[in-house]
Amino acid sequence: MDIESDLISSNTKAKVGLLSHTLVPSPIIQWILPARLRGKHQNDVVFVGERSLQIKEAVSGVHLEGVTSKSDFDAYIMAAKVINVSTELPWEAQMKLGASSATTDATSKVENDLPPQILLLSLASKELVFLYYSNAHGQFIHHHRPLPNDVSTFERFGRNIAVEPRSRAVAVSASCDYFGVFMLKKPPILQSQMLQNQLEPIAEERFFRVDGDIIFMEFLYPKSDDGGKVILLLLVAQEHTTHAICYEWDANEPLRQASPRVTKKLLPVEDRLPTMLIPLTKTSSFMLITTTSMAVYRSRLDPRRPPSRYPLPVPDRESQRSPLWTRWARPLRNWIYNQKHDDIYLCREDGRIFYLGIGNDGEVETQTHLGQLCCDVDAAFDILDIGHEGGDLLLAAGNTGDGGLFVQKARDHPRCVQKFMNWTPVTDSVLVKSSNRKPSEVDVAGDRLFVCSASSFARGAIVELRHGIEAQIGLAVSLEELSGTRDIWTMLDGANGGVHVLISDPVSSVLLYLSANFGEEICAVDEVDCGLDFGAQTLAAGCTASGVVIQVTNQAIHLGATAESVSSFRFHYDAGQSIAIAAVDEESSLIAVAVRVQHETHLHLKRLTTAANQLQLSDVGHSLKIPYEPVCIFIESFDTACFVFIGTGNGKILVYRVEESAVQFLIEKSVDVGNVDDISKAIDSITTVSAAPEGLRKENLLLCGLRSGILVSFELVFDSHSANSSIAIQQTSSQRLGHTPVRVQSRAKLTLLTCGQGFWQASCIQNGGKPDCTLQKIWITDQNNPAYHPKNVFGFSIANIVNSDVDALSDTLFCIADGQLLICTLDRDAKTVPRRIDLPGSATKLAYSQYLKSLIVAYTQTEYDTESDPIRRFTRPRIEFVDPDSQHAVLDPLEPHTEDEPVPWRPQGAAGEKISCILEWTPRKGDEEYHFIVIGTSRKNQAEQGRVIFLQTMRDFSTPSRVECHVKHIHKFEQPVYSIAPYGGFTLMVSTGREIVPLEPKISDSRGIRAARFPVLSPALSMTIQEPYIYMSTARESLMILRVSDDKLTLHAHDRQKLDGLSHVHIGGEQNLVLASSRGGRVSILSESGVTESYKMMPAALCEAHLPSSVSKLSLGTKPSPVSSHSQVFYGTTMNGTVHRFMTLAENEWRLLRLLQNLCVRDPVICPFTPRRTRLRSPVGNDPLEFQPSQMHIDGDILSRLVMRGPECLARMLATGEFHTLSTPETGCPQAIRDRFSELSRELLGDDEGSSAVEMVMGWLKRCLHVEL
């Protein structure tokens, strides 16, 4: 539906829409390419995923840090290569020129800052994309070239791409029959284009046809005396033979007039299906890697020289597997070495790496086994083009298991220094729903999403998918002697670059010093040396720019100097006085304390000064009486003045203005938490958070953390024209975070807060034209223990540490958790932060027991009988109970254990048996309740191919963390069991073979339903119950609904389309809706309306979403929808690790979102790869008034790009007339579109005098698309 279609459409029938949004993108990394796409001085690496790419920069020597990403291709990426466009002469030529500086003189400074490389992608939408990143404009600059449309989609034009070694040409091929060659413009021309933020690299093109399947395609290196030649090699398979075909032409001739010299050679049978083709830099040779050997073909396809064959290295002959050699990479070496050598890294899919030394004539001279990477490598493998202490930096990733950055030194094993988490393939998922059902607790606990993953090498895992800001532990220091530690302050040592860390518990304090390089050593500072008091609790602390450490205890203010030329100082209060609360402002050297004297409390302000190398404290004005019991205090300097905020025990906020020599009370404000008498309004902590959006005035919020677990935010408005710098405070929102005190602090321009087990970063955003507070979870991770997560964070602080590698400040988090001081690197942006519990096998099914509060996972393990000939392999399924909060991997039952306590017994299936479903079943009979874990299995070679196993489980009373279980009963079926669902109190509906069979225990009083059967045309892969109906997703007939009546199973309704069903969720409502997913990425909303006894076919889908990947599991969420109160939230997981969120839409919500989506689709900034014909087409008058189901789907990923760009982008799109011409009036004039937008926004959101419609809509849209997991 286009914009004008929405303008004129009027349909009285209520519509149901569906908003989809990607919460967790797929972690699959297809390629890792060192490519300096931003500039020659940045060590960039491009991670290419399935539909997106991310640029990371190598910092601190051996760490990759995310810089930017691009995910608006709207198509799968089929291939990726790097093209060199630098105008600098190659390294070899520079060496020959010696000391000549002509090249340097001819290159301007601006050109030196240009990227020396661009990226080439081929998309499944049949187009090539050339791109680089412009630092000046902060965006990607791209050029895309559509590929021929007359090639069938199944032939996948763009599956193979190759780049000529001197970046003079690129070649693109389909999977068979077709390939094209594109000659590129010379680097100086491309650099001049890039200076103008343009890119049109193609000079000419030509397409060729070849009969057969194109297995590989690569350019060969020309010989030194054939520098003007371009040599393209293709391996083409036809029937049972494979030919190597070589095309050779002169690069200086026009491509269309050139007559390529074609050489064809039949490959030997042993080289017919190679796994790799490697162009060698010597004598225009290439190497073929097969499953059994390596073969080097020299001098292109010289028929006079047979290939040199070498056996593949086999370091583990005892292994029962036969992994393939899948990836290769060429290390960076100096020019002199490269004249006589061509070294190659070979990598096997199980992570084994070898080093090949190839001589000047193309012969393999050395083979060295280097060790094994701790990951599967079947996708990405490359070498970072920067040296590291005499070693190579290897980058590897696979479709299963983690990837990583490895340091490979000579004669040493590879060492992993950074991991790239991967949780694919996802075989099952479960949503652990919040146990809080009260409306007042709805915001406290959210849903937790767990997935289980398989692996080709028995490295499965349970992964909790979370979203937020990652804080990765770099150093952990035990604090056993300070078990009660609750406060922490960090202070930078400006002279030496280190950090002072002051830690305090209720009775003492400790000052630690961490050196600048953050080594393993951390030392305690002596009390005498620093001039502080370690025998008392620290209430506040700070460090001034001159290096003076300020410590406030309950009786004194201590000033400790880090410089030897300045002596320490302390100010003691009288015996009858004590400090209740205190705050230190490091920037202004201001100290605020609330001093309690008998039954009164007074506010004292002091300023630190230095005279004659002596530290002094001078009073700022007179003390002021505080009318209420103070609990917390905070100092903040704004543009207009400096203010002191005090939070009290009765929920009052007191604001004071600080002048040079006076303090003035301004206003008093109360927090509003509703008309609830039993909620404490005591303000436990107080701070500010600010934001300065581009082009907008600076916004400031005051955040108050209450002891009752509520966070309250206030807008701060200043009157800069007032003589006394007046301030106004207005409450904007309140949200419950838990039931324990909310502790909020601002350090180094970051605002963090904790409540219970939650840890967040707060930000100030524009919401409907007004400032509001948004929270992002902080997840602390440990690379050495992927299952780790702290139970509680008791104290935290932030320090800006200077990073010499990037010449910038990096945020370092210091926090206290689990009896340790954790020093973490805090990411700047939110992302997916997985937590992984490793399994000793490949996971297949996952469930959650509410009764046991435990995950139940089914995984398979493979054992080998090496004594038999041939070797026999046995793969058996196992069941394990896993605590969702477990911080350790699951123990391998096949390995011996050193623990004193025996490992609990766990059920094990027969060899070849597969567990198809797991569920918790709690039948009740009178006052008695029975608890079972029911497991459905399938076997191939037994007479009874299906089993239903009943397990009785319970927690061990002596060790509550252990779960004991035993088999209670086994029921066998002739056919495999696919799914099970509980019906009523004592019945299980079992899908076995092509039949639905009720199963009841003997203790059941019912007898009639046991004999009921219902045949189905294909197995029911998933079943749910809404009595008296049974909903089934079948393998070939999509959704079917059965009815239980009169002890019979009868067909109630079925989908009119025969699709490969996967999963479904019952929605209900007036139209009796069902959300169903099927293969091919289809997600549909179906309705049972109109179904009768005589007409069982359901109406056409009300809405259909066509996603890039099939949703294998749908789950209903418990959190309320951000769209509206009537909307429902669902989660969908796919095998490639993507998690989608779905929300139902009412008609008015759908119409507004559809208008926004249409505006985005035709905008070249938000959707740069939308074909121009799609932007301009207007089917008004051709489309029926009843919209197609696919038009009822709203793509939240497109709308999220609009949210990133803010209200200004939407205002621009509403005002543009680019797509409206007199010849195409049906596209809608800008005024008509604005009027329609105002009408829809007013109908949905109402009017607000203080905000424009654009700001209100953008605020609502931002809430709808906010990611929270």
Mean pLDDT: 86
Flag low-confidence runs.
3-12, 89-107, 437-443, 804-808, 1178-1184
Question: Between the first and last Cα atoms, what is the distance in angstroms?
Answer: 32 Å
Radius of gyration: 34 Å
Quickly count the helices. Answer: 13
The CATH homologous superfamily of one domain is named: YVTN repeat-like/Quinoprotein amine dehydrogenase
Looking at the structure, the CATH topology of one domain is Methylamine Dehydrogenase, Chain H
CATH class descriptor name of one domain: Mainly Beta
- Helix content percent band: under 10%
Kindly summarize this structure in a few lines.
The protein is mostly beta strands.
Give keywords:
1269 residues; mainly beta; Methylamine Dehydrogenase, Chain H; 9-stranded mixed beta sheet; 7-stranded antiparallel beta sheet; 13 helices; 87 strands; globular; disordered N terminus
